[in-house]
Design goal:
alpha+beta, 2 helices, DUF2007, Putative signal transducing protein
Length: 103
């Protein structure tokens, strides 16, 4: 049986795609994503031009979809890093900006 790759999610932008790729990989799900070089044109391009597709193997699709459903349905509240004051989501343990622990 061949292992086909399926699009499991369209991230709004490459930054969200990288974060979700890391989340899925931390759960031992292999992820492929397109490199999106269109981000430099933000403001002049339609909003969907920087969407970034995440792909997983068909064997891991269901597990990945459950994790992404949880991501989409979770109420993410903003918290601020005590070190650099940058806004992060409440499910982050490390600040995306400075890399220091949030708690």
């Amino acid at each position: 049986m061949s292992d086909e790759w399926q699009i499991v999610y369209y991230a709004a932008n490459p930054i969200e795609a990288q974060l979700l790729k890391g989340m899925l990989e931390s759960e031992n799900i292999n992820v492929s994503m397109n490199e999106n070089s269109m981000i430099g044109g933000v403001g002049e391009l339609p909003a969907d031009a920087i969407e970034t597709a995440l792909k997983v193997s068909s064997q891991q699709y269901t597990e990945a979809r459950k994790l992404l459903d949880n991501y989409e349905n979770s109420e993410q509240q903003a918290i601020y890093c005590p070190h650099c004051k940058e806004q992060n989501f409440s499910n982050f343990e490390v600040c995306w900006n400075c890399g220091k622990a949030l708690f």
